[in-house]
Every structure is written in C-alpha cells, then in structure tokens.
Amino acid sequence: MKKTYRKWWFHIIFLIIFLILPCAFMPQILSYFDHPGSWLSESSFHKDDLLNFYAAFFTFLGTVILGVAAIFLSQQANDMNKRLIKIEENNYIPTIDINCMSPDELKDFVLKDVFCINLDDTFVNISEDMDISTESSGMVVLLTMTNVSRTDIINIELCQLTIKIKRQGEKSIVLPYKTLTISLNNKVPYQSTIPFIIGGIPLKKALLKAYDTDKEIATKNSILSLTLEFHCTNFLGEIYVQRIKVDLVSVWDQKINFPAVENKRNIMIYSLS
Questions:
Q1: pTM for the complete prediction?
Q2: 60-79 pLDDT, tens per residue?
Q3: DSSP the chain
C-alpha cells in the first residue's frame, strides 16, 4: 500500500514539474526570449503564433488525458458491476447445510417433507405421528437439511454417498451397501429445514467385525463420517453439485448414536449448466 501511494505521488510531482509549470509560465518564457538576436526574433513564427500553438497543444494533451482517465474509470466501473453481478448470482446458488436432530424434534415436521435414505434394501418407516420404525437392526441417523441460499431448491437428488467409521489411531472402515433407496423430497423452499434420515447403516456389524472389543466401547470411541453429493436445481432451472463432508459423534448421556456434528465442510459447489 505504501509503495503504491509513493508511486502516485511521484507521478503527480512529475506532472507538476514537467507539464503544468511550463504551461503556466509559457507567456513569461516567451517574453524573456523576445529580444533582438534571440531565436524567437529570428524565427518565422511570432510570439502570438507560438502562444496559440502551445494553447492548442496543451488543450489536445488535456483532452487525451481526460479520455484516458474516462476509459480507466469506465473499466473500473465495469469491473465493479461484474463483481456485483457475481455476488448477486452467488445468492442464487442452491446451498444445503446439514445438522443433527433428535427423535423428539422429528415431531415438529410433517411426513411429506422427510428426505429419507435406506441402505441394503432395508426401509425406515415413519408413521403419521412421526414415529420411526425400521425393518432391520441397522442404525438410523437423524439429520436436518437446511436451504441456506437465497433461492428455492425446486429439486434435490442425492447422487453419491460414502459412509466411513473412524477411530483414533485406527484405519477408517468403509461401510458398504448393495443398494441405495432414496425417498425424494422434490422441493426445499428458501431458508426452510426438512428432516434428513439415513436408515439401515450396518454399524454394529462392521464394528464387531473390525475391532475385537466390546461393541458399546467401540461405538462410543468412533466417529461416523458421511460424504454426500447432492444435485440441486434452483428456480432458474440451473443444476448445481454440492459435496458435503460431515463427521458425527455419539452423545451417550442422551442414549443417542451419532447426533452431534464434530466437523463439517463444503468440499465443492459448482454448476452443471
């Protein structure tokens, strides 16, 4: 910043010394040389002709400088407009935030708003009273999905899901599944929140297979890592890809598996249009 400031001062001083001062004192300079035997008296040009020439030349020079300044300011204005347009466009990028939810909070929603994922041909059933039941012994994770953008998401699809178990000092375990069934919620209005449920996670089976320890201890010391890739369509029909990574931990005081978010970050958001 200091170097730029000094550079501008140098340009201003240069203009004052070599352009503005000679222009201001041109009549006195010509009068000084207007005597017998000087170059001005022997020249075919009279003093009035030279004054008119210098006046026209500096007028032309000033016009050129003003034109260059106008082009520079116009370019700056165009760049500013582009940045403002980009900021406005970013407001309409559909963006999702993932958070945790307890089973009691599910009753604050309605059945039609639930976004549900079922692994390995197991199904999570939700009654009209928003009670959860499942056909398998797999774990059910309750999350919320919030539209944090300034646009309605008119369609949302889960295109990729990776589930890992992480333990400190141990290698991560990828939880495989044969099939993935998604109950789609076709719309997530502006700044609204809907339940996001993943059912049929074979957590205990994977832990007992990987670690030779008590299943409660193994579960308590584990972190469930989810990597989710969504395709979201805004009201303009533009499709955006958003990939989110979420680490969930257990809160055993409340007898709930993996309800708390330990780490969460957006890996990428980009347009397919």
A1: 0.65
A2: 777 887 888 888 888 888 88
A3: -HHHHHHHHHHHHHHIIIIIHHHHTHHHHHHHH-STTSHHHHSSS-HHHHHHHHHHHHHHHHHHHHHHHHHHHHHHHHHHHHHHHHHHHHTTS--EEEEE--GGGGGGS-GGG-EEEEETT--EEE-TT--EEESSSSEEEEEEEEE-SSS-EEEEEEEEEEEEEEETTS--EE---S-EEEE----B-TT-EEEEEEEEE-HHHHHHHH--S-HHHHHHTEEEEEEEEEEEEETTS-EEEEEEEEEEEEEGGGTEEEEEEEEEEEEEEEE--
